[in-house]
Every structure is written in structure tokens, then in C-alpha cells.
């Protein structure tokens, strides 16, 4: 298995979300992801006008900041709600909006 890098985490989110139908979301919700650990870095997920964008930048007008290790962010077996309640994933900001995002990244 290849080493986990910041770029691979961002690409995993782009790949996961590029075909997701977010047309039910009206307006804009945005999240900044702060990756901790070896693959550290920042990227954002924005749902705007039913379209999802993932970019390797900070997002200042965001609903929440989600902080986790790169491994926990791309681990398909880790339930986001369990990760939040066990402290493997932290949410700073609108937890309700973060729960909305979880529907699309499961």
C-alpha cells in the first residue's frame, strides 16, 4: 500500500464526492478539513447549488472545521458519527451542517 499523503487524502475526497447528487442542498454549506498527522494539510468541501467541490485550500466562510488524521478521514470502515463521539474526528462550528455532509461522504 502506498504511503498516505496530503494529496492522496484530497484526491480520495474528490473521487468519492465527484459523482454524488447533492441537488437537495439549497444554498451553500462549506467545510474546512484540517488533516493531522503525517499527511497534514487543509482542504475544503463546498456544496453549492447542488454541486460538490473539493479543493486543497482553506475556506474562511465555512460552516465548520472538521479535524482528523488522514487515515481516519479516508477509512471507509469508520462511521463518522462514531468517530465524532470517540474523539477521532472533531467538529468546530455547526455540528448540524457537519451531519448533513456525512450523508454524502458515507
Polypeptide structure, described:
This protein is of the alpha+beta class and 106 residues long. The protein has helices at residues 6-17, 70-74, 80-85, 95-105; strands at residues 28-36, 41-48, 51-55, 64-69, 89-93. The chain has a five-stranded mixed sheet. The longest helix is centred in the N-terminal third of the chain and has 12 residues, at 6-17. The protein is globular. The chain starts with 5 loop residues before the first helix and ends with a helix.
Note the topology:
Elements: H1 6-17, E1 28-36, E2 41-48, E3 51-55, E4 64-69, H2 70-74, H3 80-85, E5 89-93, H4 95-105
Parallel strand pairs: 1-4
Antiparallel strand pairs: 1-2, 2-3, 4-5
Secondary structure: helix percent: 25-40%
Radius of gyration: 13 Å
Q: Which strand-content bin applies to the residues?
A: 25-35%
Report the principal-axis shape: globular
Order of strands, widest sheet: 3-2-1-4-5
Question: What is the average of the pLDDT values?
Answer: 90
SS summary, helix count = 4
- Element pattern in H and E: HEEEEHHEH
Summarize the structure.
This protein is an alpha+beta fold.
Notable characteristics:
106 residues, five-stranded mixed sheet, 4 helices
Amino acid at each position: 500500500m502506498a504511503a498516505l499523503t496530503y494529496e492522496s487524502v484530497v484526491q480520495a475526497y474528490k473521487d468519492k464526492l465527484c459523482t454524488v447528487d447533492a441537488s437537495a442542498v439549497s444554498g451553500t454549506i462549506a467545510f474546512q478539513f484540517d488533516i493531522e498527522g503525517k499527511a497534514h494539510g487543509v482542504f475544503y468541501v463546498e456544496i453549492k447549488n447542488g454541486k460538490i467541490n473539493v479543493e486543497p485550500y482553506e475556506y474562511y466562510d465555512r460552516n465548520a472545521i472538521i479535524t482528523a488524521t488522514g487515515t481516519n478521514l479516508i477509512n471507509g470502515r469508520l462511521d463518522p458519527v462514531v468517530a465524532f463521539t470517540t474523539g477521532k474526528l472533531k467538529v468546530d462550528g455547526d455540528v448540524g451542517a457537519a451531519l448533513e455532509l456525512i450523508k454524502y461522504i458515507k
